Amino acid sequence: MINYLITSFFLTMIIHTAETLSYSLRYAGVKINKIAVALSLTGIMVLVSRTANLIQAPLTAKFIDFARTDPSFNVLQYLRIILIAASIGTFIAIVLFPTFVNIWARVISKLELAGSLPRLISSVTVAQLRNTKRYIAKPTFRLQEFRYLGVSKRFIFLNIIVTAIYTVGVLSSLYAAHLVPELSTMASQSSGLINGIATILLTIFIDPQVGLITDRALNQEEYKEQLGKIYMLLMTSRFLGTLAAQTMLLPASYFICKVIQLI
């Protein structure tokens, strides 16, 4: 099981790194006034995330199957380790954010010249890949910089909660399948009970606010520099959300158990 755990750990890191780095793509689009092109490229981040998830999900479910044959197997501990991978992946994205803003800005500019993504990919040379080291930038994080950005505490808190719920959604359904083996199939397919709550909060409170923040930066030149700090703040709240997911794993699992027993 250790090999499965290591693989799931790294795939979970990739998923959360890719999802969090989508902020860098959006910010790069704002900086060079190509937000529509930037948003069209988010499919790349989604592709990376979903490909990793396609492999990670069955591997994680393997822990539940193994626990049926070995009662001494500590499923909960393994799931918590995977949640740690989510936190590490998000932290890696925060560190890489300034670098990827520079890289994505270059990619967007090149895409405009190439005309299509396949042409852009085929035009990349080894020398150009070597030159990417020029775009490496160190992140700066000073608490005093985040005091007057116009982002409410309630918005940050909601972003933490939504991230925590999304992070724990699938894992809580798998652990619920372990808690109620007689309803394991139903439980393993019930992550929507948890993720649905996060989707409602995201759609109503988070996404519109992020859209307004981005639009403000497009229309106000002096706000563009602040946007990077705001995205950094949002990514930090995502990181805190992955940590909060540790406390939500058991309650979410028991909630799923209760609901499927009533159905």
Describe the protein in words.
It holds the Pfam family Amj. Pathway: Cell wall biogenesis; peptidoglycan biosynthesis. Belongs to the Amj family. Involved in peptidoglycan biosynthesis. Transports lipid-linked peptidoglycan precursors from the inner to the outer leaflet of the cytoplasmic membrane. By secondary structure, the chain is an all-alpha fold. The chain has one domain. 82% of the residues lie in helices and 0% in strands. The chain is built from eleven helices and no strands. The longest helix is centred in the middle third of the chain and has 40 residues.
What secondary-structure arrangement, pairings included, does this model have?
Layout: H1 2-20, H2 22-31, H3 35-40, H4 42-69, H5 75-114, H6 117-123, H7 126-130, H8 153-179, H9 184-188, H10 191-219, H11 224-262
Helix pairs in contact: 1-4, 1-5, 2-5, 2-11, 4-8, 5-6, 5-8, 5-11, 8-10, 8-11, 10-11
Main location: membrane
Family: Belongs to the Amj family.
Pathway: Cell wall biogenesis; peptidoglycan biosynthesis
Descriptive labels:
263 residues; mainly alpha; globular; membrane; transmembrane
Uncertain parts: none
Count of DSSP helices? 11
- In helices, the fraction of residues equals over 70%
The N- and C-terminal alpha carbons lie at a distance of 33 Å
Radius of gyration: 20 Å
Give the tally of structural domains: 1
Tally of strands: 0
- SS strand fraction: under 5%
Biggest β-sheet description: none
Structural class: mainly alpha
Order of helices and strands: HHHHHHHHHHH
Shape: globular
Rounded mean pLDDT is 84
